[in-house]
TrEMBL record:
Keywords: FAD, Flavoprotein, Methyltransferase, NADP, Nucleotide biosynthesis, Transferase. This is Flavin-dependent thymidylate synthase. Transmembrane segments: none annotated. It comes from Salipiger marinus. GO terms for molecular function: flavin adenine dinucleotide binding; NADPH binding; thymidylate synthase (FAD) activity; thymidylate synthase activity. Its cofactor is FAD.
Length: 301
């Protein structure tokens, strides 16, 4: 299960205690504080702390650019301007600290985003719980034939059952041996920092992940995308819902210009202009590779 009874009791206690403050708060984010949002079979995302709101973005922008923003009459319009023109530092004025429980192989993808502060549960000092990510049957898929990083058609029938059996049996066996190696009954017991190397990549870990809004939105743009791996995408989608409540103006602009928008190369823009003039443009006369052309057409369709 995502939360133990002890963790649920701790969260309930934290949520029951109000703390007066003079700093700016976001009603939407206050509703999320400490609450664990379940992800996958044993994972979760919860907000531990945050700083700033939509107004903090505008405040920083107006300090930075002074009179140049006087013509922007409202916060929403200013935020959309900043997002549209790829400004970054005003969005860095907002920060959030997440507590995330996730499979190790997802964590190894996630940690490639090197623009956050991370502190992970240490298996050198503590014993990891017997919790493994086992995919739902509809997430068991073959290798894509067109994308070396992607999935193809879902496995079915006996093949799907065989794969699930391997995942469950191998994880359980590895954890059994992990426990036996660190046992101290009648033996010295292997050090935890060594015994952990026998654990599979689908075991769950936990960390605190603190990031500013600019870098969080960059993470979400990549990981909430439909092409991202499912297991990290569901975490990103959960965080998107949290961010939408935290900074609604900033998230709406992000959704419009980043998630729902597209960036065209100079060559692609030239092809689009030719198309609008009625010219027949093909991959052969476009100046693009087959891959670029396929992506360009997908953007337009």
């Amino acid at each position: 299960m995502p939360l133990s009874p002890e963790q649920e009791a701790e969260i309930a206690e934290q949520r029951s205690t109000a703390r007066p403050t003079l700093r700016a708060t976001s009603p939407g984010m206050e509703a999320h504080l400490y609450t664990a949002h379940p992800v996958l079979d044993h994972g979760f995302v919860r907000v531990v702390d945050y700083m700033g709101d939509d107004a903090a973005i505008c405040q920083a922008a107006r300090v930075s650019y002074g009179r140049g923003t006087k013509s922007v009459s409202n916060d929403e319009g200013l935020i959309r301007y900043l997002m549209r023109h790829w400004h970054s530092t005003p969005f860095e004025m907002c920060e959030v600290k997440f507590h995330v429980k996730l499979p190790v192989f997802v964590a190894r993808q996630w940690i490639r985003h090197r623009t956050a502060n991370v502190n992970e549960y240490s298996a050198r000092y503590s014993i990891l719980d017997r919790e493994f990510y086992i995919p739902e049957p509809d997430q068991l898929a073959a290798q894509s034939v067109i994308n070396n990083q992607g999935r193809g058609a879902a496995l079915s029938g006996e093949e799907a059952q065989r794969v699930l059996r391997f995942l469950q049996d191998d994880a359980s066996r590895a954890y059994d041996h992990y426990q036996e190696m660190i046992s101290t009954e009648g033996q010295q017991g292997l050090a935890r920092e060594l015994a952990r190397m026998n654990l599979p990549a689908n075991i769950y870990t936990q960390w605190y992940w603190k990031v500013d809004l600019h870098n969080l939105l960059h993470f979400l743009r990549l990981r909430a995308d439909s092409h991202a791996q499912y297991e990290i995408r569901v975490y990103a989608e959960t965080m998107c819902r949290i961010v939408a409540d935290w900074v609604p103006f900033a998230y709406a602009a992000f959704e419009d210009y980043r998630l729902g928008g597209a960036t065209l190369s100079k060559t692609a823009l030239d092809c689009l202009r030719r198309m609008l003039k009625g010219e027949e443009v093909t991959q052969e006369n476009s100046g693009m590779s087959k891959g670029e052309w396929r992506e360009f057409r997908a953007t337009l369709d």
